Amino acid sequence: LVSKSFKPETTTVQLGDMLVGGPEVMVAAGPCAVESRENFLETAALLHRAGAGALRGGAFKPRTSPYSFRGLGEEGLKIMAEAREVTGLPIVTEVLNASDVELVARYADVLQIGTRNMQNFALLEAVGETDRPVLLKRGMMASIKELLLSAEYIVARGNWQVMLCERGIRTFETETRNTLDLSAVPLLKQYTHLPVVVDPSHAAGKRELVPALALAAVAAGADGILVEVHPEPEKAFSDGRQSLRPEQFAAMMADLRRVAGAV
Ligand code: PEP
Ligand code: MN
């Protein structure tokens, strides 16, 4: 179902007043995790001013260590919903378990499936049963074909609103957190009608690399960018090292507009 031979025309995903997969590049920005109401609302307002098209933030965080900050849960979802009220921007947030899908779908505009869950088939089927757009991240050790087969699980359940996300894969290189596989963008475009989003933040792991990777992704044909921004990255509860400062985000948006024509 996800292959271009089955459906040659590009699938567009309606997100607020934007069509992902259309001529505009969708930029979803925000902190790794929702940390507090004040912090998130303030961040949302500045991202809105800088031209973001959607807000990202984690309420349920998959963490390598069980002792790290794992998110505010439903409280975080409520804060994001409030930010949507204020800014009008749609909300992208991760759902970790099939049993949480109903709860997260009550608040979120886009259900994000994280890299660690790309092959959580029960979760894929559960989001496939909803009418919410899904952002499916590539597993950090998954091939492009495996990503497409995971998308197939969602679409087979009737939900065609799926965006694929390249977020870096594990390689021998240690200078970056993961290696951004830019080839995935034109390859996915060749194989599938689904829109392609790139997350340069989790790929790079270092904020100074993020704008260049975002620009390269859009130049390569990405339909959207998912990027972490924090008002005070040094104080972030998670992923501060890769989070852009607000002024870096604004500069990146200006550069993206030049590359994409219209953002
Ligand atoms: C995230 O977007 O915050 C996240 C956890 O991403 P990934 O699943 O790609 O690590
Ligand atoms: Mn993160």
From TrEMBL:
One of its GO terms (molecular function) is transferase activity. Residues 18-255 form the DAHP synthetase I/KDSA domain. The keyword Transferase applies. It comes from the Bacteria. GO terms for biological process: aromatic amino acid family biosynthetic process. Keywords: Transferase. This is 3-deoxy-7-phosphoheptulonate synthase. The chain holds residues 75 to 337 of 346 of the full protein.
